C-alpha cells in the first residue's frame, strides 16, 4: 500500500488552511515525495495581506516584555525540538544532518538575540536649543514599527533565514508575511506554528506557500507592504526593485566571494577553512568561497593540500552523520553547475578534481587557469566549485578580488597585521574575515554587501533598525 503523503497547511492570518492545488516538496537526494503544501492563489495572497493589515495594529500594541517572552519561549521550544527541525531541514533541502543541526542552533540564537534586542530599541534626546530662537524647545526621538513587512526567503537556509526576518519583526512590533522558497517551505511553516505556540497573537505572522509567478507581484507591489526583506538572486532582486514602489528594501543578493592566502599564513588552517567555506551546503551559500588567490611561493603547496582534502570530502546520504556534503537542491541546478564547469574547461581551464554529476549530486570541483571571460569567473556559481589563482602579491589579490560586480564578504589568511589592515581597507565588500574564509558569520553582526550583493544589513539589531522609523517629538515650552 502506498504511503500517504503528509499534507501541510499554510498559515494565513493565524488560520491554518489547505487548498486543492498543491506544491510537492521533494527530497533532492532521491526525488522522494516527502510532503505537499498548498499552492496559494492570487485570492489567497490578497486575503493574507488583508489579515496582516489587521495584524499591524495587534503587533504594535504588544508590550515589549511580551515580545521578549514570546521570542524566548519560541527559542526554548525550538531547542526542545532540535532533532525534529534538523531532520526537516535535511530532508527538504541540501544540507547534511550535521549542517542542519548547526542551522537549528543558529536559529535558536537568532530568536534569543531578537528577544534581547527588543528591550534595546531606544531613541535619544535632541538639543533643540542648538538653533538660535529655539531656547525654549526640548524634545527627543523614538523608534516606531513601520507596519507590514514582506519576507521572501531562499532554500539554502530554510529555517534560520526565516528566523532572521521573523525575530526582528516581532521584536520591533511589526506584522510579517513570509513567502518561503517553494522547494523548502516546511521549515518556515514549522516555525510559524512554533511562534503561535509561544504566544504570538494571530494575524501578526502569516506564511503563505505558492509559486512566485502566481502570487509574487501581488505581494511586492502592494502599497500596504512597507518593507520587503528579500534574500535571493540578483535578477529577482532587480525585478523586485523595479516593481516595489515607495517602500523600504532590504536585500541580500549573493556574491562571488574571494579568499586570499598569503605566504606568511598558517597553510593548514587556510586549507581547512576554505574547504569548509567552499563546500558547506553543497556550495549553495551566499558567502561561500568561490575564488582563492594564493601567493605564488606557496601556491603549489596550497593547491596540493586543497585538492587532496577535496578528494577526501565524503558525499552521500544527507542523514548520515558521516556525510560531508549532500546534493544540490535540484537536478536542474546540478546540470547548470555542470554546464558552467564544462564551459570553463572547453575554454582552457584546468580541472584539478571533481567535475562529475550524478542526478542532483555534483562532486566538489577545483579549477585553475580559468579564462576571465568565463561565467564562473564573474558570476555566483552557487555550487561546490572553487577556482584557484596564483598571484604575485597582496595588491594583485585585492585588485582581482574586487574585479566582480559583487561584494558580500571576503577572507584573508595572514599573520601580518599591516597586510591584514591593507586588505580590510581596500577590499570592496561588506565584511572581511581575517584568518577565516568568507564563509564566517554570527547572527548578531551586521550582514550585507555592496554592489550587486545587496541593500541594507541583516543581523538582528541592524534589521530592527531597518524595520523601525524614528519619530521626532518637540515641546515648545514658551
From TrEMBL:
Do you know which Gene3D superfamilies this protein is assigned to? Aldehyde Dehydrogenase, Chain A, domain 1 (3.40.605.10), Aldehyde Dehydrogenase, Chain A, domain 2 (3.40.309.10)
Domain Aldehyde dehydrogenase: residue ranges: 16-473
Please tell me the species this chain comes from: Salinibacillus kushneri
Q: Keywords, A to Z? A: Oxidoreductase
Concerning Pfam families, the annotation shows: Aldedh
**GO molecular function: any one?**
lactaldehyde dehydrogenase (NAD+) activity
Provide the protein name: 3-sulfolactaldehyde dehydrogenase
Q: InterPro entries, per this entry?
A: Ald_DH/histidinol_DH, Ald_DH_C, Ald_DH_N, Aldehyde_DH_dom, ALDH-related_metabolic_enz
* Catalysed reactions, semicolon-separated: (2S)-3-sulfolactaldehyde + NAD(+) + H2O = (2S)-3-sulfolactate + NADH + 2 H(+)
Tell me the function of this protein: Part of the sulfo-TAL (or sulfo-SFT) pathway, a D-sulfoquinovose degradation pathway that produces sulfolactate (SL). Catalyzes the oxidation of 3-sulfolactaldehyde (SLA) to sulfolactate (SL).
Amino acid at each position: 500500500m502506498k504511503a500517504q503523503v503528509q499534507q501541510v497547511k499554510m498559515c494565513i492570518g493565524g488560520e491554518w488552511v489547505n487548498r486543492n492545488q498543491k506544491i510537492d516538496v521533494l527530497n533532492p537526494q532521491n526525488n522522494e515525495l516527502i510532503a505537499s503544501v498548498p499552492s496559494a492563489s492570487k485570492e489567497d495572497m490578497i486575503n493574507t495581506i488583508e489579515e496582516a493589515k489587521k495584524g499591524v495594529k495587534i503587533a504594535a500594541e504588544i508590550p515589549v516584555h511580551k515580545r521578549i517572552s514570546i521570542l524566548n519561549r519560541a527559542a526554548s521550544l525550538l531547542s526542545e525540538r532540535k532533532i525534529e527541525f534538523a531532520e526537516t531541514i535535511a530532508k527538504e533541502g541540501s544540507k547534511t544532518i550535521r549542517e542542519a543541526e548547526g542551522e537549528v542552533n543558529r536559529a535558536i540564537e537568532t530568536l534569543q538575540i531578537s528577544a534581547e534586542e527588543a528591550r534595546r530599541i531606544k531613541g535619544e534626546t535632541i538639543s533643540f536649543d542648538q538653533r538660535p530662537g529655539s531656547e525654549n524647545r526640548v524634545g527627543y526621538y523614538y523608534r516606531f514599527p513601520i507596519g507590514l513587512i514582506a519576507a521572501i526567503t531562499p532554500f539554502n537556509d530554510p529555517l534560520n533565514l526565516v528566523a532572521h526576518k521573523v525575530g526582528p519583526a516581532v521584536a520591533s512590533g511589526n506584522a510579517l508575511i513570509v513567502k518561503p522558497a517553494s522547494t523548502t517551505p516546511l521549515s518556515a511553516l514549522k516555525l510559524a506554528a512554533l511562534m503561535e505556540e509561544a504566544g504570538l497573537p494571530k494575524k501578526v505572522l502569516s506564511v503563505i506557500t505558492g509559486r512566485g509567478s502566481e502570487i509574487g507581484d501581488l505581494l511586492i507591489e502592494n502599497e500596504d507592504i512597507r518593507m520587503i526583506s528579500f534574500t535571493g538572486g540578483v535578477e529577482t532582486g532587480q525585478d523586485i526593485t523595479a516593481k516595489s514602489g515607495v517602500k523600504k528594501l532590504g536585500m541580500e543578493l549573493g556574491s562571488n566571494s574571494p579568499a586570499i592566502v598569503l605566504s606568511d599564513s598558517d597553510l593548514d588552517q587556510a586549507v581547512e577553512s576554505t574547504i569548509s567555506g567552499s563546500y558547506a551546503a553543497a556550495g549553495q551559500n551566499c558567502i561561500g568561497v568561490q575564488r582563492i588567490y594564493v601567493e605564488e611561493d606557496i601556491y603549489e603547496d596550497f593547491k596540493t593540500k586543497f585538492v587532496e582534502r577535496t578528494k577526501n570530502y565524503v558525499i552521500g546520504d544527507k542523514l548520515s552523520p558521516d556525510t560531508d556534503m549532500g546534493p544540490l537542491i535540484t537536478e536542474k541546478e546540478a546540470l547548470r553547475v555542470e554546464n558552467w564547469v564544462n564551459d570553463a574547461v572547453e575554454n582552457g581551464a584546468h580541472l584539478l578534481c571533481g567535475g562529475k554529476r550524478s542526478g542532483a549530486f555534483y562532486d566538489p570541483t577545483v579549477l585553475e587557469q580559468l579564462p576571465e571571460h568565463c561565467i564562473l569567473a564573474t558570476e555566483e556559481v552557487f555550487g561546490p566549485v572553487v577556482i584557484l589563482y596564483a598571484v604575485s602579491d597582496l595588491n594583485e589579490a585585492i585588485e582581482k578580488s574586487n574585479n566582480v560586480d559583487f561584494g558580500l564578504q571576503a577572507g584573508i589568511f595572514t599573520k601580518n597585521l599591516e597586510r591584514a589592515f591593507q586588505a580590510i581597507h581596500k577590499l570592496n565588500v561588506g565584511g572581511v574575515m581575517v584568518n577565516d574564509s568568507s564563509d564566517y558569520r554570527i547572527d548578531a553582526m551586521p550582514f550585507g554587501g555592496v554592489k550587486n550583493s545587496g541593500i541594507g544589513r541583516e543581523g538582528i539589531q541592524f534589521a530592527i533598525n531597518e524595520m523601525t522609523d524614528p519619530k521626532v517629538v518637540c515641546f515648545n515650552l514658551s
